[in-house]
């Protein structure tokens, strides 16, 4: 194993799950409590962005990844100080790739209790207000014009 692979890859996915009528799935993280987000997760070192989006969707919700759409948007942001220890010392930014999954109706969700404590299906405006990160809010906002 190379020294670099001991650390997390500073690249991730954000998967916004929503219904046709714009009810959006939001997940509350176990840590930090009160941090709400869409499906997210880091890429492994040997993984493609598409594979990571599908894996994270399955792991965090139990949903089938059929129908995932790459938004073609990547956002770059500083790695939060509380998570810096997970990354190589020279990694200061993360690149997050945005994906969408449109469902015909509300679906059953199976949370990974290690990562998330609860979920809610929220109307678009409420989901935007609930999202803890600016990148997640921006991805949700894009649904207004989709």
Features:
alpha+beta; Nucleoside Triphosphate Pyrophosphohydrolase; 4-stranded mixed beta sheet; 3-stranded antiparallel beta sheet; 146 residues
Summarize this structure briefly:
The protein is of the alpha+beta class. The protein is 19% helix and 35% strand.
How would you describe the overall organization of this protein?
The chain contains three helices and seven strands. With 146 residues, it is α+β, with helices and mostly antiparallel strands. It has one domain (4-145): Alpha-Beta Complex (Nucleoside Triphosphate Pyrophosphohydrolase), CATH 3.90.79. It has a four-stranded mixed beta sheet, sandwiched between helices. Strands 3-2-7 form a three-stranded antiparallel beta sheet. Strand 2 (23-29) and strand 3 form a beta hairpin. The longest helix is centred in the middle third of the chain and has 13 residues, at 49-61. The N and C termini lie far apart (43 Å). The mean pLDDT is 95.
Low-pLDDT regions: none
What oligomeric state best describes the polypeptide chains here? single chain
H/E topology pattern: EEEEHEEEHH
Main β sheet profile: 4 strands, mixed
Count of β-strands: 7
CATH architecture descriptor name:
Alpha-Beta Complex
Helix content: 10-25%
The CATH fourth-level homologous superfamily: Nucleoside Triphosphate Pyrophosphohydrolase
Measured between the Cα atoms of the first and last residue, the distance is: 43 Å
Radius of gyration: 15 Å
Strand content: 25-35%
**Biggest sheet, spatial arrangement of strands:** 4-1-6-5
The chain-level structural class is alpha+beta
């Amino acid at each position: 194993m190379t020294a670099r692979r001991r650390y997390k890859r500073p690249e991730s996915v954000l998967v916004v799950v929503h219904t046709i009528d714009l009810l959006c799935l939001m997940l509350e993280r176990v840590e930090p409590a009160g941090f709400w987000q869409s499906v997210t997760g880091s890429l492994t070192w040997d993984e493609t962005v598409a594979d990571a989006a599908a894996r994270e969707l399955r792991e965090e919700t139990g949903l089938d990844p059929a129908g995932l759409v790459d938004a073609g948007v990547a956002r770059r942001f500083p790695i939060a100080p509380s998570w810096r220890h997970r990354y190589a010392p020279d990694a200061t930014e993360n690149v997050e790739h945005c994906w969408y999954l449109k469902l015909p109706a509300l679906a059953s969700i199976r949370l990974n209790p290690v990562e998330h404590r609860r979920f809610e299906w929220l109307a678009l405006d409420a989901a935007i207000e609930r999202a803890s990160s600016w990148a997640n809010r921006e991805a949700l906002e894009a649904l207004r014009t989709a």
